[in-house]
């Protein structure tokens, strides 16, 4: 019987890498980030709503100005909530359609949702898997990836539920404190233990 798994993590924990590895092992991935881009894509109703709330500066060449919006919402919880109220209902609809299609085809589905616990979506899946790395690694990876200062990296990390708290909320934890090769081995061991890979 097909299963629906909620995959989450913290910012810069390596969730996208894990998602890609799970895809290689036959899981169908429904990606919240891709759905959120569709929700405000060029010409969409969602993009019009963003312009109404954030002004004309929020749009560049007909697309959402992510850098401009990011600077606002990471520093203002009220504006972050307004953005979420625009995007989240549309994202849920897009993801639900994809999930049902994959289940109809008999596939195991990964719902790749960065803010799964923040948005209290754990009851919408059969099981939750957390990609875990410690905060020191999060800060280092985020600084490297996005060219941020320590303070900027911490601000982004602290906008989410702490990774240690998520660890207690998740049904399963996938450790990612080492190299990509370490992670690949961890995934194989994890999926074998869960009977998704048979030897």
From TrEMBL:
Broadest EC class assigned to this enzyme: transferase
Entry keywords, A to Z: ATP-binding, Coenzyme A biosynthesis, Cytoplasm, Kinase, Nucleotide-binding, Transferase
UniProt name for this protein: Dephospho-CoA kinase
PROSITE patterns named among the record's database cross-references: DPCK (PS51219)
Record-stated family: Belongs to the CoaE family.
CDD domains per record: DPCK
Organism: Mammaliicoccus lentus (Staphylococcus lentus)
Residues at which ATP binds: 12-17
Signal sequence bounds: none
Top-rank taxon, per record: Bacteria
This enzyme's EC code(s): 2.7.1.24
Taxonomic lineage of the native organism: Bacteria, Bacillati, Bacillota, Bacilli, Bacillales
Primary localisation category: cytoplasm
A GO molecular function held by the record: dephospho-CoA kinase activity
């Amino acid at each position: 019987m097909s299963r629906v798994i909620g995959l989450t993590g913290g910012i810069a924990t390596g969730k996208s890498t894990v998602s890609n590895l799970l895809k290689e092992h036959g899981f169908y991935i429904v990606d919240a980030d891709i759905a959120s881009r569709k929700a405000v894509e060029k010409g969409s109703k969602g993009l019009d709503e963003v312009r109404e709330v954030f002004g004309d500066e929020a749009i560049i060449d007909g697309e959402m100005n992510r850098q401009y919006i990011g600077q606002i919402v990471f520093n203002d919880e009220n504006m972050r909530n307004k953005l979420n109220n625009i995007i989240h209902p549309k994202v849920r609809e897009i993801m639900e359609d994809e999930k049902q299609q994959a289940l109809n085809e008999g596939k195991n589905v990964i719902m790749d949702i960065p803010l799964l616990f923040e948005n209290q979506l754990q009851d919408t899946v059969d099981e939750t898997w957390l990609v875990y790395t410690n905060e020191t690694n999060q800060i280092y990876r985020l600084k490297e990836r996005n060219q941020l200062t320590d303070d900027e990296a911490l601000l982004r990390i602290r906008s989410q539920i702490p990774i240690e708290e998520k660890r207690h909320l998740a049904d399963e934890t996938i450790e990612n404190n080492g190299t990509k090769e370490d992670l690949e081995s961890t995934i194989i061991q994890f999926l074998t233990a869960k009977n998704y890979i048979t030897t």
